[in-house]
Amino acid sequence: RFNLQSCRTYSTKPLFPTKTIRSLLCEQPQTNVTLRGWVRSVRQQKQLSFANINDGSTLKGIQVILNDAKNAARLSTGACVELQGQLTTSPGKEQNMELQVDKLKVLGECDNTYPLQKKRHTLEFMRTINHLRSRANTGSAVLRMRHAAGEGLQKFFADQEFIQVNTPLLTSSDCEGGGEVFSVAPSDFFKKPVYLTVSGQLHAEIMATSMGRVYTFGPVFRAEESMTSRHLAEFWMAEAEIAFIDELDQLLDVTEANIQQTTQHVMDKCYDDVAFFNQWVDKQLLNRLRTSLDKPFVRMTYTEAIDILQRSNKTFQFPTIWGASLQSEHERYLASDECCGRPVFVTDYPKELKPFYMRANPDGKTVGCFDLLLPGIGELVGGSMREDRYDILQHKMEVAGMNCEDYQWYLDLRKYGSAPHGGYGIGFERLMLWLTGLDNVREVVPIPRWAGHCKY
Ligand code: 4AD
């Protein structure tokens, strides 16, 4: 008879020929260890030579010691090597273990045109050699932390019983109505204009109004002309859409927990990397992250924010009158040490400033929405309660000049069993600025795209 147990064909052998340096650094002393990686630096002395090898799994890599001068001469910065030897306890303070090399194999040589040397290079210089950025500390720390941040966001969603849904990148709608869309495909292919998505929200609403709590995490695209340090043409967003949420305050609770738990996850998983940024980029980083975990975020309405700005006695370039958009100078002031000194939710903006889908407040002037502003960064998250009343939504769409026929599917979600719901979108690169202390989104995405720049 067929027996499922006897069909287990998978092997228990390790899947990879070598362990990562990260895992070797946690092991006990042993002989006959093999590792592979890239040479970061070499220091040749008369008797012994030292090299630092890194495979991307850890910030500091591993120190290896060679007592064969001939072998040491074959090591050059940037080369890819395989080393075999004894893993021993390190007398140095920097790390637990080091490798006494018996055998060296150069897998890929590297000549002296290699642009990365032991000294610190500027972020601007590193951007000119994007394809080599992750061979240096800042670039590789960013990638490990990006991974941990994505994992932290998704762990939060999983713990709270969200379902991940995959929203399309090609779409015929413009969610934010800002017109900052990239057109794609010759118009005869889809028989109508099609764009790269600016947000998965409208599609996520389809799924939330049948599945309850959903999220989508993926790239979005905006034809942003603004060349600021906060804007990319292609960036990642984590978007949550939640049915059966009744009030904006509940949505703020979820957002706050999402950001705090993700921050905690990254600090737990990548402490060395966060400490590296604290040392070299922003000495207040750890302090700021810890404060954001210890104290609740501030909550104020747009009307209160305008009042605070007017009473601040600061000179702003843009007006601070009720009805005007909050500019980045205003957002930064509100979150700064001078004002709140921690993350701030600003809620209930004038309806004219926000997209059609946001739920109208009873005052008739504002909508149930929020922006989360972070110290030093400005807006990290945008979210709102969604208008779930058919007639009001239809009216708002008409006022916004939209063709309601094209969006009948969206109105249908209100026609057939409408549910109170709301959601938010976290800009992933701005989250990375928060976690690293870096101040330009181009540093925290491996291959950035912005106006005039699409190399590789
Ligand atoms: O505030 P936004 O435009 O909100 C939305 O798109 C909603 N539909 C999200 C939702 O409710 N599901 O964008 C959300 C966040 C911003 O707060 C900001 O962090 C980031 O996305 N963002 C950008 N990040 C990098 N480059 C750009 N050009 C960005 N535009 C927005």
Automatic annotation (TrEMBL):
- Which region is the signal sequence? none
Give the CC-aspect GO terms: mitochondrion
Keyword Plastid listed? The answer is no
- Locate the Aminoacyl-transfer RNA synthetases class-II family profile domain: which residues? 153-446
Q: Which GO terms describe its molecular function?
A: asparagine-tRNA ligase activity; ATP binding; nucleic acid binding
CDD domains reported for this sequence: AsxRS_core (cd00776), EcAsnRS_like_N (cd04318)
Protein's name in the database? Asparagine--tRNA ligase, mitochondrial
What NCBIfam families does the record tag this protein with?
asnS, PRK03932.1
- Listed EC numbers: 6.1.1.22
What family does the entry list?
Belongs to the class-II aminoacyl-tRNA synthetase family.
Keywords of the record, alphabetical order, are:
Aminoacyl-tRNA synthetase, ATP-binding, Ligase, Nucleotide-binding, Protein biosynthesis
User: Which InterPro entries would you find in this protein's record?
Assistant: Aa-tRNA-synt_II, aa-tRNA-synth_II, aa-tRNA-synth_II/BPL/LPL, Asn-tRNA-ligase, Asp/Asn-tRNA-synth_IIb, NA-bd_OB-fold, NA-bd_OB_tRNA
Pfam families recorded: tRNA-synt_2, tRNA_anti-codon
Lineage of the organism: Eukaryota, Fungi, Fungi incertae sedis, Mucoromycota, Mucoromycotina
Which species is this record about? Absidia repens
Domain of life according to the entry: Eukaryota
Task: Give one GO biological process term.
Answer: asparaginyl-tRNA aminoacylation
Q: Which HAMAP family match?
A: Asn_tRNA_synth (MF_00534)
